[in-house]
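Hi Q.,

Before the meeting this afternoon, I wanted you to have the N-(iminomethyl)-L-glutamic acid prediction in hand. No need to reply - just skim if you have a minute. The sequence and ligand are here:
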Amino acid sequence: MEKLLIHNIGMLATPTGSTARRGARQGEIQILRGAWVLVENGMIANVGTGKPVPCDDATVLDAGGKLVTPGLVDAHTHLIFGGWRQNELGLKLHGVTYLEILARGGGILSTVTATRQATEEQLYDKAAAALNEMLAMGVTTVEAKSGYGLELENELKQLRVIRSLAENHPMDVAATFMGAHAVPVEYKDDREGYIRLLCEEMIPAVAKEKLARFCDVFCEKGVFTAEESRTILECGKRYGLIPKIHADEIEPIGGSELTAEVGAISAEHLIVCQPSGITAMAKAGTVACCLPATSFYLGSTYAPARDMVNAGVPVAMASDFNPGSCPSLNLQFVMNLGCLRYKLTPEEVLTAVTLNAAAAIHMAGRIGSVEAGKQGDLVIWDAPDLDYVCYRMGSNLASTVIKKGEVVVTR
Ligand code: NIG
Ligand code: FE
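Predicted structure with the ligand bound:
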């Protein structure tokens, strides 16, 4: 039996439980000082304080009095893409907006061209490099979306890359089908035709190969209407795909209100979410997956995450890593912004990037907290306490990353 004992933990900070935490409970985390954690066969067997239970056959890791938390969960990424879009920076500086770039056939659509041209192997290597970087920054589970293929074979290509990464990379990777990321140029004048293709060919093919667990839609002005989003997500549900929605990122066109109606597990972005959307999500228990680094990069306002927590919506935070609206995979920066821009407390922020993020991808029973019975995914931080991680900016503070009881990164 493989055993790992981590001892001399100065502060063990973790949310508890197997479901999303909301309202005041989002900020009520467990703090243990002078703690130890025993991981057996990849799973957490025991957690305690004081002198660890004697365990002769375990590999012993001294945490050096530092902070330990659960491995971070990045519940929203567009991990698989060809090329980059640094050429858009100049346009942005001249005041051309994100949706204007898209309307001119750039933006997502230019990444579609680059992704269609890339081989499965090229996409794999590029995404694996990003996963290595994420792991080194303390992220142990990632959600990854398709959505830069926008036609059957290229969407399947992206999802097969996600599947091979899930099988071969130490990171846990959850797959989301997002064929409804944009209307491809070929269907510019036939939106209904593209929605038929999504519902009649792409979703059934994705389900047949069991390539995704979730179905996501970009519900946005000029992309998919709330009505179209409903059609696509309902169709996904008939094929066993759990709904997610990119809602209220730029214009509030009814995306967050739709979450309750279709039973979405999460709504993403929510930058311009209205009180009616907050009420709908609180009532349905939808996880609000807020992406502050995207607001930072777009230069937009920030999601009303504070109001959401106060209203009883479980709030998660993620990177949104993609080549257009957030070319950063730094979840530690997202934690900084959670405090500085959302005005969440460090405790609420930790829950947002661990347990609530796990809930947004239906994995809160297995990951997202340091408790007996959960997977042995942990981070030892180059930090004495949680406040320090939320306060320091721009450095990578993850010093040792443990995945399923194995040390995968030491710096
Ligand atoms: O979440 N909003 C839609 N999708 C991504 C951006 C994708 C891109 O620009 O390539 C997002 O922001
Ligand atoms: Fe996104």
